[in-house]
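Discussion board: Methods & Data

I've been asked by a reviewer to show the raw model output for two of the constructs in my manuscript, not just the figures. I'm not sure how much to include, so I'm pasting the format here to get opinions. Each protein appears as its amino acid sequence followed by a line of discrete structure tokens. Is this the kind of thing reviewers expect to see in a supplement, or should I convert it first? Here is construct A:
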Amino acid sequence: MIKGFKDFLMRGNVVDLAVAVVIGAAFSAIVTAFTSNIINPLIARLGGKNSVEGLAVQLGESDKTVVDFGALITSTLNFLIVAAVVYFVFVLPMNKIKERREKGREPGPSEPTDTELLKEIRDLLAAQQSQQTGPRGH
């Protein structure tokens, strides 16, 4: 069990995953700043003259009754931007590298058929039998 865990760690999957999480978190902060400071004001402006409310609707007297469509749009844009960057910067290049590696590999020897194996066994048995009878020719 320990050997399997060690093999898993040594394959690099854990390191790749850790790097992806750190880069994703850092990039997520950049995207959040972009959408909060550039996209949100634009969305709020679409909602009306009051830039604080934007595309929000207040259903009651309390601040807890505000339905903020702008926040939903912003979160969706955050997700789409992060997903696009992860795909085009990480996934697509890795798939291309994997394709190139697979193209460079030569196919190994093909497995012998059942008939070929049976012929080999027959020949080995015949050779073994002739050795047991010896050079006398019996």
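Construct B, same format:
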Amino acid sequence: MKDPYETLGVARTATADEIRSAYRKLAKKLHPDLNPGDKSAEEKFKQVAGAYDLLSDEEKRRRFDAGEIDASGAERQHERYYKDYAQDPGGRRYQYQSAGSGFDDFASQDDFLAELLRRRQEQARRAPGADRSYELEVDFLDAVNGATRRITLPDGGSLDVAIPAGIDEGQVLRLRGKGAPSRGEGPPGDALVAITIRPHRFFRREGDDILCELPVTIQEAVLGGKVKVPTTTGPVMATVPKGSNTGTTLRLKGKGVPKRGGGAGDGLVRLKVMAPTEPDAALENFLSGWTPGPGYDPRRDMQS
């Protein structure tokens, strides 16, 4: 076992006060309650406590200095067999029994550790309750425009959730104080609400923009004109340019997703030219007499 003077970092001429001061300094650093889970610190604390146990006792210290006992407090009788030494009452060794054993006495002698324990107890008493997690599925338009929706809790209660305009898929809302109550006198925890968004039948979000595919007639595509276009806040009139095709995209400024810092993305209207699904004699007669111009070939980009 290591020399107790070396363990405490004091000289052999150290006074009782110097030994006590060295012990307290090391104990503040190494005590298991201050280093939970640190086996190395726990082992060093055992050594420090054993060294202090020996050197703080005047008689033990005298006998150690005289070579009568070793650092563990055992008699130095080398001619005796081990079994005799093991049974010798003087051969006891210091044992650290638990993280809390003897700590109350030590804390009462040291204001720092006593204050640390008091703070821990106070923190435990004032600790908040646990957070609780929920999932909430909302409609696409509610996610874009904002809404208030209600969650039914497992205990039969309910929780109103304000959906901010422009919320995104997977975003988690934190509702302060709507979680589990504290076990002590602290505040309740928070409710964490993860948002999922139902797809819309014709709107699709692309960043802060909202895409909508709009069917138009052959006449609207060729001649252009005004058409009614749906947006997330209601229909608006838009102009289809003359000579449009499937894939032509109109941009409606500010008709997209509201942004957190103000403003909004745009509405993107992608045209899809639709021929009549039922026979149309007038259209058929017109097209049968129509001859495309010499430069017109809709499949020229597909030619090898």
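Answer (T.O., handling editor elsewhere):
This is acceptable in a supplement if you add a one-line summary per construct. For B, something like: The chain has a mean pLDDT of 85.
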